[in-house]
Amino acid sequence: MRRMPSLYGLTFSLPLLAWQLLFFVFPLVFLVALSFWTVKNFTMQPGFDPVNWVTMFARPVFWQAYGTTLALATMAALVTSALALPCAYAVAFKLSPKGQRWAIFLMVIPFFTSYLVRVYSWQIFLSDAGIINVLLGRLGLGPFHLLNTVFATLVGYLTLCLPLVVLLQLFSLIFIDRTLIEAAHNLRCGRLRTVFEVVIPAGRVGLVIAALFAFILSFGDFVSPIYLGGGDPTTLSILITDTTKSGQQWPRAAVIALTMIATLMVVAFAAIRFAYKGRAK
Amino acid sequence: MEPLVSFEGVIKRYGDFVAVKKMDFTIRKGEFLAIMGSSGCGKTTTLRMLAGLDAPTEGVIRLSGQPIDHLPTWARDTPMVWQSLALFPFLNVRENVEFALKMRGMGRAARRQKAEHWLDRMQILEFADRNIAQLSGGQRQRVALARSLVVEPQILLLDEPLSALDAALKVRMQSVLKTLQRETGITFVYVTHSQSEAFSMADRVVIMSRGQIEQIGTPQEIYGTPRTRFVADFLGSSNIFTGTVRHSSAQGVEVETPDGPVTLTGGAFAAPPKAGETATLTVLDTKTQLGLVPPGGANAIRVRVIGEEFVGATATIYLETAQGREIRVQKSHDELAGLPLGIGQELFAHWSPTDSHLVAEA
Amino acid sequence: MSANPANRSRLVDLGLRAYVVLAFAFVFAPIAASFVFSFNSDRFPSIPLGQMSLQWYQAVASDPLVWEGLRNTLGIGVIVGLVSTALGFGAAYTDFRFKFFGKQVYMALALLPPTIPVVIMGLAMLAYLSRIDLSGNALSVIIAHVVICAPFAMAIVRLRLSQMDADLEAAAWNLGASEWKAMAHVIVPFTLPAILGALFITMAVSFDEFAIAWFVSGLNETLPVKVLGFLQGQVSPRINAIGTFVFVLSMGLVIGAQVLLSQKSKE
């Protein structure tokens, strides 16, 4: 381990550093500057004017979208975690190693399919004359209005997050020492109680991180709320795309984006604090 | 014998931690030198500095008289056999052995010939095209040796290379190593924590503790006359007594210990301790005798049997003095015949004044 | 394992297994439906199925914009794969080998980008790249995709390096290999499976990324951006045809990588 930077070491270390500074840090920093620029006659003027912040924060529609986004993402994180947990638990504790490998392989496949295509596919299932309503109709039920509802948005979020959350939960459960569970049974802790008293606390860090990822993904996603949720109520990510793409109001979009980043940082920090609470680092 | 390597005032610090404290010693050409100590004593750091993997904080290391500290490890011919063996898993046996030659720019044919020579010498030529994963522990060991020896270095460094092997294979590899060293005449520097490995193979042994050299000598010297209390303790084959010097002269020393007076005579000590000082003396457990009655003269201590242990032809008897100090005696079964050894049996431990040695307290 | 069967309940086990099947059904339902309906003639797909037909594939194949999008996607994906794997490899090796002041910041830069929502990355990239006159072309998509792909490559290579005997590189130096030679003869051969894996996976990530690409690509739309366009416009089963095609392509890459990797590790 040498301390002196050598040509050899820099050859491997510098390119990524340079790239991420130039194309990751700088754009985000520029976003901060941009939020103080003004737009006159459809052209942006550099400056230091808090007008965008004042305008955006004074708009009820912004705060409505903020509340909607926060509520939807929280709901997505909780629902996804709750629905994924039995699956991850079953794979971790009830399947053979071979079954586990298959389960992991299958859960990885969705990462290589287009999210857009899957969302479109859900439209086929959920629309008024779609597969689900046809099937329900044969049972004499419905038709139900499923598409363009919060339910549909959540289905989209679930499509986006479930594979990742199952995998993250699985990796935190699979490494729990089996003797912990046997010890709990041995001490007369029942099966279900063991799940809540031993398995979930032991895997807490991974479970919280998984929920955090579900929150982050849903918080920033604009596809499900538009194409399954119908764009109403609007979310912050929809607001950003609208403001950027049609309105030419990039500085205002920057205000929304920065508010989102600040929110995500607070949530991530709180989640990680909660995950490690009472644990020696 | 001329020195091949010399350490001159070598110190190695990691931040505030001193791994090696001011080390001065030489390694002779063609010898089998073992560096022994418990973990964290600085033995591996010493070896790594010689290999050029770690740099000394202070001091100079010379190889054949030339300072080598400015040379990176790849510019030194100090190949090492690693504790983990560190064989390249993506290369087969032959390619592993050829590696060092390839790095030196040797042509394909010459490389192959040389590698095969060493594979043959290590009796693993038949495995030349196997993958490392297909080899047994002993075969891997031989590949690691061949890989390092193929450049025919003046010196070979070995860092606990046998620690992963089972006991029987270990003994077998010890004789392989010893023979190899004798036949090639290459200087071996062998780091180990195992006394049996060091003493069975090495011409000279360096004993280290907390970054310092405690003693350098042949196995016989170290075993027979440990220089310090640490060495005697570490080897675990001596009974140790500490007390106040009562009489001292060039002929002998008498020390008053809590268990009674003990004397030694004829010991070769440079400066006899003065009366009133504290002194420690040792006697090997094999030279400690047992009897039902005290023999005439000095060095007889009343003891009680507290346990016995039989390993093969020898027995170790554990005894306790009136002060609660433990004393060990090692004897063959024949020597113990007729002696009552039930737990609690009172006996006398005694030894000749010429069999004990004075050691430094440090 | 021979755990005492009295500690298990067959009913609970059965229920849990059924639940796993259900979860996988939810995950694969849209993928399967997209595949099935890509061969179905109905304009508004539902059940019962209409006629078996390749008309959506024909519609897609005869759309020059789709071809252009595919070309863009493939070209961008290959370059993104190469560049982000190279950068990720360097970062993984840096983490493996060196200790230095500010390493945590370095590692944060190396790993954080995928956690920033894509709309925000898209906006930031669009604003920044148009400021430095790099927006609205394939290059801008490449730049942005490398930012989010390099962390994946870094993670994959780092994982492989952590499986390496820590002494292996030092052993190579000790046998006369300079740092550069040890890199070429030890580190690269050892991590080769991970390098190839990272290459395929970063390509696959780039193939599917639509949001950032949508913000910065301008007129040089990639295929996923094209799909977003179809989704915005008239609902069209053409999406299913493209989706199935891209799925087969991506899975081909992934399975190819898997086969390559398992052969390598068996050696």
> What is the number of E strands of chain B?
20
Spatial order of strands in the largest sheet of chain B: 6-7-8-3-9-10
The H-level CATH homologous superfamily of the largest domain in chain C, spelled out, is: MetI-like
Count of the separate structural domains of chain B? 2
- Say what the CATH topology of the largest domain in chain C is: MetI-like fold
Strand content of chain C: under 5%
Q: What spatial form of chain B do the alpha-carbon principal axes imply?
A: elongated
By CATH, the superfamily of the largest domain in chain B comes out as: P-loop containing nucleotide triphosphate hydrolases
pLDDT averaged over residues of chain B: 89
What is the overall pLDDT average of chain C? 87
Biggest beta sheet summary of chain C: none
CATH class division of the largest domain in chain B: Alpha Beta
Would you give an account of this structure?
The complex is a heterotrimer of chains A (281), B (362) and C (267). With 281 residues, chain A is mainly alpha-helical. A two-stranded antiparallel sheet of chain A has the order 1-2. The model of chain A has no long low-confidence stretch (mean pLDDT 89). In chain A, 74% of the residues lie in helices and 2% in strands. By secondary structure, chain B is an alpha+beta fold. Chain B folds into two domains: 3-224, 3-Layer(aba) Sandwich (Rossmann fold), CATH 3.40.50.300; 229-359, RNA polymerase II/Efflux pump adaptor protein, barrel-sandwich hybrid domain (OB fold (Dihydrolipoamide Acetyltransferase, E2P), Beta Barrel). In chain B, α2 (93-103) packs across α3 (108-121) and α2 runs parallel beside α4 (137-149). Chain C is an all-alpha fold. Chain C folds into two domains: 5-37; 56-266, MetI-like (MetI-like fold, Orthogonal Bundle), CATH 1.10.3720.10. Chain C has eleven helices and no strands. At the B-C interface, α2 of B face α7 and α8 of C.
